[in-house]
Design goal:
single chain, two-stranded antiparallel sheet, 180 residues
Length: 180
Amino acid sequence: MAGDIEARMEKTVNSLKEEYKTIRTGRANASIFDKVRVDYYGTPTPLNQVGTISIPEARMVVVSPFDKSLISAIEKAIQTADLGLNPSNDGKVIRISIPPLTSDRRKELVKQAKGVAENYRTTIRNIRRDGNEDLKKQQKAGELTEDQLKTETDKLQKLTDKYVDEINKVYETKEKEIME
């Protein structure tokens, strides 16, 4: 059971890291476009499947569509993705200049990152609660003694603390990234 719980907690931390990739920082990063969906003949398709995303310089992203007829659909998808970016196209590629973040926008993004981290901490605590309920059921069924229950509950708490600390470290790293 402990392995299952640890695996769930590990997945939670990895999920947080993935979500943080989509929060914009001051520099160009292809992963901020992970949630952008382009209308590809009526099907919402991830941007990286309809074009190549490259970063020629620190504050510039270039999207080269595989199919040139999609250029306006890609441009529209980026504008409506709520990334605060303004793409422009020259008929062949789409250029997106990444403006430096204002201090207000940085504070807003840090607040967003903090909220996301808190949701993941809650998920970890919910996993702990599920584990504790399982342990109590096992004790009621006579599979665990009172002492074993206490030992397993303590182990579960240590695991929870470890993963909450990991979430805090991931958040602190993201906060530094946003504020630099």
